[in-house]
Amino acid sequence: MNILIAPDSFKESLDAIGVCRAIQEGFSQVYPEANYTLLPLADGGEGTSEVLSYVLDGQWREIDVHDPLMRAITAKYLLTADATAVIEIAEACGLHLLADHERNPLIASSYGVGEMILDAINQGAKQILIGLGGSATNDAGTGMLQALGVKILDASGKLLPPGGASLIHTHSIDRTALHVLSDIKITVACDVTSPLCGSTGASHVFAPQKGATPEQVLSLDQALSHFADVCQTQSICADSCRVSAGAGAAGGLGFGLMAFCAAELKSGFDTIADAVALDKHLTTANLAITGEGKLDSQTAMGKVASGVARQARAHNVPVMAICGSVDRHYSLHSKPSASVCADSNAKAFAMSPFDVVVPSIQKLDSLDKVMAEAYSNVAHTAYQLAVTLKIGQQLNL
């Protein structure tokens, strides 16, 4: 029996590789002779480069960059043997790099991301895969652009200071230095569909969690809109760029990458699945086991578990999902109950692509203890699933 184990990480408790190993440990107690393929996955956010380092031939590179407040830090990215750099923007401008009292999207900069891109180019990268997610910034990627040599000037010809708030003073943009990207293909893994501006844009949706007050949200949205106006006036991008799905991702980094770097924004899961050849692995699998930290309404919206199940279905491969927890509102029945139908998201999810979904938490306990026991819980759950499968085979009903 060929068993493909292809889960996401369990956030803050177990990385995707750890989930793979825990599932294999539990399942192999019952099926020791099975062939196991471990394929840790991600959706373009945190953990993407770690996942790809497991399945691709590459080396880590650590460099000195600037954090969101322009302090010196060390960041890493993966450089593969085929000259592809895998960069997670959170390494340089992540929210986790700031203490709660330091969060301020008015001045936070994505400068370090540009430094990572420039270093990758200097190391010979011809393709760059960028994972958007977890940023502390709301600067439309202007910090990144400044690190690449772009000059963003006010009416008096002075360079704008870091941060999204200063963009309201944008008067002209000199992007001559971007010739460095002329032979570089940039792909962005992103599942955020927000446009740059407006009620569903970068500032309104994400800036509050980055420390912005309601008044600051409005000023940031105006600043980003003005910046996009100048970009359009100077024929840097079409007006449609600001309303493109994903333009508002990572505080508008999606916009900066599309408008200035000719980057292609793609589904995070689809991008990673292609990179690790998920579809090819499924052609020889008899069973696929996936999972994520919590199965809920977001699972069906481009997350790893549903993506694995969708592709497995295309190959008629049965799918099991082991999750940290499972939202009680979501059913596996093909015909949802009346109570489930009351929630439109739940109704959609009721048409589940999974054959089996089980939570791995074994008992009620403190959150810290549940997190600490994630590996053993997943392994034990995998063992129980394997025993159940073995009983079914023996009954041969």
Task: Give a short summary of the structure.
The chain is an alpha/beta fold. The protein contains 15 helices and 13 strands.
List keywords for this structure.
Rossmann fold, 397 residues, elongated, 5-stranded parallel β-sheet, alpha/beta, 6-stranded mixed β-sheet, Glycerate kinase, domain 2
Could you characterize what this model shows?
Helix 1 (16-28) crosses helix 15. This protein has 15 helices and 13 strands. It has two domains: 2-41 and 276-395, Glycerate kinase, domain 1 (Rossmann fold, 3-Layer(aba) Sandwich), CATH 3.40.50.10350; 48-268, Glycerate kinase, domain 2, CATH 3.90.1510.10. The radius of gyration is 23 Å and the shape is elongated. It has helices spanning 16-28, 48-55, 90-93, 111-122, 142-147, 202-206, 214-233, 249-261, 268-275, 278-282, 304-314, 338-341, 344-350, 367-372, 374-395, and strands at 2-5, 35-38, 58-66, 72-80, 84-88, 127-131, 151-153, 172-174, 185-189, 264-266, 287-295, 319-326, 356-359. It is 36% helix and 18% strand. The chain has 397 residues and is of the alpha/beta class. The strands form three sheets. The chain has a six-stranded mixed beta sheet, with helices on both faces. A five-stranded parallel beta sheet has the order 2-1-11-12-13. The protein starts with a strand and ends with a helix. Helix 11 links the parallel strand 11 and strand 12 (319-326). Mean pLDDT is 90; it is low at 331-350.
